[in-house]
Design brief:
The protein starts with a helix and ends with a strand. The chain contains four helices and five strands, in the order αβββαααββ. It is 62% helix and 14% strand. The protein is elongated. It is an alpha+beta fold. Strands 1-2-3 form a three-stranded antiparallel sheet. The protein has a two-stranded antiparallel ribbon with strand order 4-5. Mean pLDDT is 81; it is low at 20-27.
Amino acid sequence: MKRLFIILTAALMTVAATAQEQPAAAKANQLVCSGNTYYYGANEVMKKTQMLDWYARHNCQQAYDQFAKGLKLSNAGWVCFGLGLGMDVAAIGTAVAYINSAKTGGSQAIPTGNPLYITAMCLGAGALVLEIASIPMLAVGYSQMHSSVDVYNVVCKTASARPYWTLQASSNGLGLAMKF
């Protein structure tokens, strides 16, 4: 039983140690995304805030545009989520004020014409709309940012000067030239 425990402990320690390393594909000079961390090769590690500069330095306009679009969309999603949370807090504060005013007034029925009641309901509904709208914005934005890695690896990394044939005139006459 002790041997089994020692073997299991050693296996878990090995798994934990290898989980800290970079993804295996990052060692082959490809851009790899793991969470919000981007790896290029064995020694370049970047966060999402550094990726726009990295794409600009590597002259990949398609990946730059897709990452920028995803970053704007995810930032808009976080703004909507934050505004929704702020409106939730305001709705709760207004509801507490309404409940306190209803207790002091002695009314047991809920008067729907009360401005505090209407304000609390509108703030709550607006908060719900903003929070629900933030979910697809965040999902699509992060998806676009992460798929810009594939755009770089397919479009920009594999792009090279393609040779082509052309007619060339010189002092010796016309000739067929291969440009590469």
